[in-house]
Amino acid sequence: MSDSDQASTRSPQQHDILIVTGMSGAGRSTVGKALEDLGWYVVDNLPTQMLAPLTELADRAGEKIPKIATVVDVRGGRFFTDPEQAVEQVRSTTSARVRVLFLEATDAVLVRRFEQVRRPHPLQAEGTLLDGIARERARLSALREASDLVIDTSDLNIHQLANAVTERFADDHFVGVQVTLMSFGFKYGLPADADMVADVRFLPNPYWVPELRPHTGLDKPVSDYVLAQPGARPFVDRYASVLEPVFEGYQRENKRHATIAIGCTGGKHRSVAIVAELANILRGMPGVAVRVKNRDLGRE
């Protein structure tokens, strides 16, 4: 049964198993990371003997783990035996949609990539890089023939390969930029995971307004006060305009996650109000999903 036929007949509850294999240096790690970003549960360097037990586990899990990918390759050494037979066994014993993705590249490209990282080929032994590549091609030839999809990565960089995987396996999963808007207080330290940081301490601090001090930027009186200050609204609007082409570039480069941090002194008033207002604007941008995190709210 072809990939498209199998896809058209599966029920909505049926789960997916993707076996990623191919030439060493062709981008298996990049593919694994791209699949994880798409919500797949990825198992790396699985011995072929463990394919059947993993499939049984996936069948029992069902909808709890709807997408499982496993990377199977010659790194398994003695445990990498009869891979094509192991794949056929899996296909014949599960109700899941099982697909094999084979990653390919030319000898010249593989040699260059190995030389760049200064690592030997896993099958090189006492020979040359080309000897190891030739042994691997021979060992994987039957598995390549049994593959559902072959991607030649010779002319692809890691971003282009990740994009190719996203286009092929995203299905209905959100593939834009998932943005975390984080408010924080500078007195508690900069967020270590922030991609961009903005400082809104140029705005008057509601802390010094007695009736506003006990409230937070989530409360309307504080939010109204902050946004009414000179420079507040222009900052929000212009910062959103700055971020829009950034997110468009992130999508082109396959960067799926971004953390934008907005800081004030304690992370209670100004930054919280600005983050909430900025989130409303960003949610209107195509290809952008927004999550708000108020890191230091409640610490005082």
UniProtKB/TrEMBL annotation:
Q: Which Pfam families match?
A: PapZ_C, RapZ-like_N
InterPro entries the record matches: P-loop_NTPase (IPR027417), RapZ-like (IPR005337), RapZ-like_N (IPR053930), RapZ_C (IPR053931)
In what residue span(s) does the RapZ-like N-terminal domain sit?
Answer: 16-172
Q: What GO annotations for molecular function exist for this entry?
A: ATP binding; GTP binding
The keyword Nucleotide-binding belongs to this UniProt entry's keyword annotation: yes
The organism's lineage?
A: Bacteria, Bacillati, Actinomycetota, Actinomycetes, Micrococcales
Protein name in UniProt:
UPF0042 nucleotide-binding protein
Per UniProt, the keywords (alphabetical) are: ATP-binding, GTP-binding, Nucleotide-binding
Q: Which residues form a coiled coil?
A: none
Listed SUPFAM superfamilies: P-loop containing nucleoside triphosphate hydrolases (SSF52540)
* Residues holding ATP: G22, M23, S24, G25, A26, G27, R28, S29
**Entry's PANTHER family?**
RNASE ADAPTER PROTEIN RAPZ
RapZ C-terminal domain boundaries: 178-297
